[in-house]
Amino acid sequence: MSSQLERNFVEMTGRMTKNEAMEEANRCLYCYDAPCITACPTSIQIPNFIKKIASSNMKGSALTIMDANPIGASCARVCPTEILCEGACVLNSSTKPIKIGQLQRYATDWAMETDVELFKKGEPNGYKVAIVGSGPAGLSAARELSRFGYSVTIFEAEAKAGGLNTYGIVSFRLPNEVADWEVAQVEKLGVEIKTNTRVGVDISAEDILTQYDSVIVAVGMGSVPNLGIEGEELEGVHDAIEFVKRTKMGVLTEDLIGKRVAVIGAGNTAIDGATCAVRLGAEQVDILYRRTEKEMTAYQYEYEFAKQDGVGFKWLTAPKRIIGDEAGKVTGLECVKMKLGEAGADGRQRPEAIEGSEFIIEVDAVIKAIGQTRFVPLIEAFGLQHTNGVVDIDETTMQTSNAKVFACGDVVFGNGQGEAMVVTAAQQGKNAANIIHERFKKQSGNA
Amino acid sequence: MADLRIDLAGIKSPNPFWLASAPPTNSGYQVQRAFEAGWGGAVWKTLGEPILNVSSRFAAVSFNGQRVAGFNNIELITDRPLEINLNEILETKKRFPNHAIIASLMVEPQQEKWHEIVKKVEAVGVDGLELNFGCPHGMAERGMGSASGQVPELVEKQTYWVKEVARTPVIVKLTPNITDITMTAEAAVRGGADAVSMINTINSLAGVDLDTWNTVPHVGGKGAHGGYCGPAVKPIALNMVAECARNPLVNVPISGIGGISNWQDAAEFMLMGATGVQVCTAAMHHGFSIVEDMIDGLNNYLDDKGIASVMDLVGQSVQRYSNWGDLDLNYNIVAQINNDVCINCNKCHIACEDTSHQCIDLYTESGRPMLKVREQDCVGCNLCAIVCPVDGAISMIEKKSTIPPMTWNERQSLISNFTR
Fold first, then answer.
1. Do B292 and B314 belong together in one domain?
2. CB 3.0-4.6 Å disulfide test: which of A356, B19, B32, B221 passes with B42?
């Protein structure tokens, strides 16, 4: 059975064959001032990398991608391309858009398999940068800084580097070896990644601030907050982030086989939790959302994907109480029907409970996916100004309230600031690295 | 249903589509399969002293993923004994009496050799002869094929020898590996040719293997030039047909050959003066069945145009083909861009900006990217319309001139009158 579960977590989308890639690459018009480049947060020179596939210049193609985006292999798989590059492709107006994501994967897969050296460490300039967090933003910043010649140290609390790509994106979309390869690319440039090193526990923020010339905080976000209802301590209640993380670590337990699962929330993480539960053998998986289909924050393709996986959606439904048995195991969930009322401060209609509409569904597990907590103590340990745990930055320089500290990635996303996509985190990491480098050049008179 | 029958210098066939003398017409089996598929005629693979061939023989050029944009071969004439070929011609002609079988011939440039082979092939009932003065590789090194075809005197003399004994129409197949094909076409006519066919293949080397540095194709690590054909050569062939068609000294029918892949190509060759066409590469790429659409498409085209017989197409565009000095210097066209159809790939802009006359501007109108031609700077070169991937986005529009037409030749003669 476990081998069946393993198969369930194998990457779903196959790689293009050489013929498919060639045919698709030759379809690209090679636009001038191509809108796909503008639509890519990391501004990959897309027509160029595609032209290079067509001319069998695979190294050049992979380099074009990875140069602009240090996690270009992951982004080939996880980017919402239909709202980015592919959505901007001019062929949407005539035939059908180029499969840019698939071609990007084809080129980066080639680089992974040949293990070709794409980049070299820069001449050491004697300047030291600490990066906290090794996710998309931190890795990207580290890669760029190392190429510029900085001595870079990343502090990573987890056992493996890679952050979201290593622990948070479901394996059937992003296999571990892709994230591992991207981490290895950065390590090969001489970046030291101190894993199992939690800032505030294993090293203090003050020590980092004094030992390094610049600091980049790219810690992302934390676990799912509590629902604040009765029964959250019961066995069978999961945090979606932790739930996905276990599958990423290869822990495919059989305890959900044939079971009924309720997922609370309707963002992309909820979809991840629900589809992982399906793949762990759950017989019935339902997503409960207190608003409607229209307000859900999951990408359209994630929503479609979940529906194809057989995930059910219960709109305007909120959990009220988790019910357990004497052994402390989840047996049910009391829900209440909701309706949308007046618009709140964020402009969205507030859901309101319909009195007397309570009902109970029988479930064996509950997966919480109602957002993520912030690493407020860590942010405060660095003395950074923040708004509800979202680090305040100058969006053009990524600089925080401390001139030597920069922040990027999910730690700056929220309250209308930043973007939640992996690819934007990568670009923010590049931006932070560029700003640090520009300032260094100015200081050292090399500008 | 239009009448697709043609009569080329007395050779009749049910439609204008013949297989050219080449690998597809190597045997009776193949030619009979071709006739079953619908081909109107076949020029049998060149007969002569059976030769030895090498392996490998073919290579092709792909362009942006499109296979067989051009095709190259170093195969020689038939490698089978003459008697076997003659028996198969006889048998094929019996099965398909209304289809045209033309024997392609190549022997050493000696009168008695030509007389001998002409008599033999006519005895089995061929409808015509085609003298292979075009094959550029191998046979040319032995003084035959294009080695003969590049010398007008040899073309004339050998045609004359054939005509001394031939009772069926004689077509002379010309090589394009010559500066001016009308010179050899005229020589063939002087020798008594009933028709000319063109073009044979163009000297070529398909490529070099970037891993082994061998030629493509190679024979055990060594290569030799081959003959180039396929879609890439069509414009070269079409020009040569047209130049012969408008030359009053080449006053015989033309059988058009060179990159013809579909009925449209065939119609173009016929409008430019060919009475029928010969096809090889397209059949080698796709098999004999492609003739079905050639016939069907040509028929529908003729019906749409209200033309009763395909023979009515022949030469209709010849008088429109002229010398540069006869073109109107005051005729003007300019590009116009339809922004409703345009998909904003900007290929027209960058093509014009980098490589033509810098007259297509990019601008934004209510947030939408747009393109516009500065007509006063547009020279009507067509480049933008050529690179545009969307039909109807760019049109070339005539700008009525305020001054009367004037060609370069008229202008020069006016100037010389004035200064005399």
1. yes
2. B19
CATH superfamily of A15-114: Alpha-helical ferredoxin (1.10.1060.10)
Distance linking the first and last C-alpha atoms of chain A: 62
Mutation to test the A interface, candidates B338, B343, B390, most A Cβ within 10 Å: B343
Contacts of B390 in chain A (CB under 8 A): 94
Query: What is the H or E stretch that residue B132 is in?
Result: strand B128-132
B364 touches chain A (CB under 8 A): no
ipTM: 0.90
Residue A344 confidence (pLDDT): 84
pLDDT tens profile A213-256:
999 999 999 999 999 999 999 999 999 999 999 999 989 999 99
CB atoms A32 and B389 under 8 Å:
no
B241 CA: distance to closest CA in chain A (Å): 33
Contact call for B390 and A32, based on CB within 8 A: no
What is the distance between the alpha carbons of residues A432 and B269, in angstroms, rounded to a whole number? 64
Asked if A261 and A364 touch (Cβ cutoff 8 Å), the reply is: yes
In a shared domain, residues B303 and B337: no
pTM: 0.93
Q: What is the rounded CA–CA span in Å between residue B21 and residue B30?
A: 12
Three-class SS of residue A233?
coil
Span B84-115, pLDDT tens digits: 999 999 999 999 999 999 999 999 999 999 99
**Chain A residue set in contact with B, beta carbons under 8 Å:** 22-23, 25-26, 29-35, 54, 90-91, 93-94
Which is nearest to B384 in space by CA: B367, B362, B408? B362
CB B394 within 8 A of CB B388: yes
Residue B337 neighbours by CB under 8 Å, 6+ apart: B348, B360, B371, B372, B373, B384, B393, B394
Whether the CB-CB separation of A276 and A170 falls below 8 Å is answered with yes
pLDDT of residue B134: 85
Tokens of A14: 């196959």
Q: Judging by DSSP bridges, how do beta strands A390-391 and A386-387 pair with one another? A: antiparallel
User: Helix, strand, or coil here: A189?
Assistant: coil
Please say if B229 is a catalytic residue: no
Which is the CATH superfamily of the domain at A237-368?
A: FAD/NAD(P)-binding domain (3.50.50.60)
The CA-to-CA distance between both ends of chain B, in Å, stands at: 60
Residue B360 φ then ψ, to 5°:
-115, 115
Residue A251: DSSP 8-state? -
Q: With beta carbons less than 8 A apart as the criterion, state whether A71 and A42 touch.
A: no
Residue B350 forms contact with A (CB below 8 Å): yes
Question: Which sign does the torsion angle of CA B111, B113, B119, B124 carry?
Answer: negative
Could you tell me the pLDDT band of residue A348, with boundaries at 50, 70 and 90? confident
CB contact under 8 A, B345 and A23: no
Nearest C-alpha neighbor of B194 from the set B8, B395, B342: B8
pLDDT at residue B420, rounded to an integer: 67
- Chain B closest-CA separation from residue A49 CA (Å): 15
Give B151-184 as a DSSP string. -HHHHHHHHHHHHHH--S-EEEEPPS-SS-HHHH
Last residue of a domain, one of B268, B299, B320: B320
From the CB of residue B340, how many other CB atoms can be counted at a distance below 10 Å? 7
3-class secondary structure, A109 = helix
Does B343 sit within 8 Å of A33, measured CB to CB?
Answer: no
Choose the closest CB to A54 out of B64, B345, B349.
B64
> What residue numbers bound the domain in which B146 lies?
6-320
Please check whether residue A152 is in contact with residue A192, taking contact to mean a CB–CB distance below 8 angstroms.
Answer: yes
Closest by CA to B260, choosing from B304, B197, B322, is: B197
Q: What is the CATH number of domain A128-222+374-443?
A: 3.50.50.60
pLDDT tens digits for range A171-209: 999 999 999 999 999 999 999 999 999 999 999 999 999
Q: Name the packing angle between helices B82-95 and B28-37 (round to 10°).
A: 30
